[in-house]
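Severity: low
Component: inverse-folding endpoint
Summary: output formatting inconsistent between runs
Steps to reproduce: submit the following structure tokens with default settings.
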């Protein structure tokens, strides 16, 4: 069986899309790993009220963590010169203002860029939280996700079958098999994971992919 990217590999590829000076909000789970690989000039914002904070405290160095300084999902960070703290209303005004990039996890993405990432459809339901604000309010949305379910079924679909987070909001998909751009004319396969071919990625993707003229293997 061919090797897929692990969570860190997906995060590394997503981080390559971030430029110095860009304002970025990271979602729960895999997106949070992007902070470990992003350019040092990227400015991170957390919806519980901080922007421009310093590096994250390594999970192996909990003794250095300050309980007062953590992001919305509880990962600790270090204060940095020039950072700002504010209330959650100000935070969501930023999120809804169309100036930030959001990196979110995904359960399903449609060929039109619809995103489903908060409810698996099971009896336990889910909580949509700030994902609906981020997916709709960000100027750019990058989704990190497994290309298929545990059973091998596609997560990139013609139409999402799970409850939507937002419609037509996704710009890029960084999966464990590929990097895909969502365009008005369809999904464009830009890169494949090392060792994979466009044909193999297509076989695990429900919509027809358009192959970029400069299709290449991911450089991680």
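Observed output (run 2 of 3):
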């Amino acid at each position: 069986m061919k090797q897929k990217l692990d969570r860190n590999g997906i995060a590394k590829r997503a981080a390559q899309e971030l430029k110095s000076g860009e304002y970025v909000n990271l979602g729960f789970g895999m997106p949070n790993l992007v902070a470990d690989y992003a350019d040092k000039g990227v400015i991170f914002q957390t919806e519980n009220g901080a922007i421009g904070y310093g590096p994250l405290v390594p999970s192996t160095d909990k003794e250095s963590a300050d309980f007062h300084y953590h992001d919305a999902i509880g990962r600790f960070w270090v204060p940095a010169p020039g950072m700002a703290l504010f209330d959650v209303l100000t935070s969501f005004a930023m999120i809804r203002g169309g100036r930030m990039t959001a990196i979110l996890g995904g359960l399903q993405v449609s060929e039109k860029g619809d995103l489903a990432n908060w409810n698996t459809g099971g009896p336990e339901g889910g909580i949509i939280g700030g994902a609906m604000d981020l997916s709709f309010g960000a100027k750019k949305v990058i989704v990190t996700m497994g290309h298929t379910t545990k059973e091998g079924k596609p997560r990139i679909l013609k139409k999402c079958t799970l409850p939507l987070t937002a419609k037509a909001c996704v710009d890029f998909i960084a999966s464990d098999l590929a990097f895909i751009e969502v365009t008005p004319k369809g999904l464009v396969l830009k890169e494949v994971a090392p060792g994979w071919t466009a044909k193999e990625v297509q076989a695990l993707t429900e919509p027809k992919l358009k192959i970029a003229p400069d299709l290449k293997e991911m450089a991680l």
